[in-house]
């Protein structure tokens, strides 16, 4: 929690802008998706929340970037580090926060083609959402769904097989996860899902449909890759049940998948809006320069204070504090 005299003195010493009020229950920095969900939850619980971001936009590294702006986003102009050691007094110790770039050695060649302005790059994906996914449920429960527009992924999934693309048929056939799991032994549930599919005689093409178009496996399930990347049977059955329950959940969604209309950057913004409605204070272009730590006295712990600067730090990695 910020201490008002210390924050005011530090701001006056460095001519930094002050934020009023100066005391909050929760302070979050970086408006990525995890921080934004936490801000919305804290604000809904009645906590006073300060949510700041060094960038001039929401989402941090969960944002959606116009394709022509991607190169400048990955290679921000370096800004000098500032020292706040002078702000420390006899009762405080200043710990400077050193900025570091998330991306390094980014190379670009040539000019961005004209059609690029019609495209947006999702930095976290792209990742489709199941209509019955927990993330969708969270948006509905929190009211975040009022601040983001979704679009159904038309035609469901496409499977690339033998040099051609094949549509994966969607079915509204409901199969309960518990009922399916009850027919499988505990030992089989902990085996790789590919072995389970082979055991039931699925053709190679049908196995690919189940693994990559329905269970949405990220890695080759039949290759020499690390075992931790393999989907286990238990997880595979849960995903198939999730896919099945997603079909037909919303009247305007034909298949099992949905996607934010303007990219995944809309998701953190939706939760930020929920938090703002509940009284959270948002400040962009406001990085954290240092932590001011109280000198320990008779207590077991110490309180920390935050000192900010309006200096641009687009290359500062967002951190949840």
UniProtKB/TrEMBL annotation:
Belongs to the Rab GDI family. Pfam families: GDI. SUPFAM superfamilies: FAD/NAD(P)-binding domain (SSF51905). Transmembrane segments: none annotated. One of its GO terms (biological process) is small GTPase-mediated signal transduction. This is Uncharacterized protein. GO terms for molecular function: GDP-dissociation inhibitor activity. Residues 295-321 are annotated as: Disordered. Residues 302-321 have a biased composition (Basic and acidic residues). It comes from the Eukaryota. Signal peptide: none annotated.
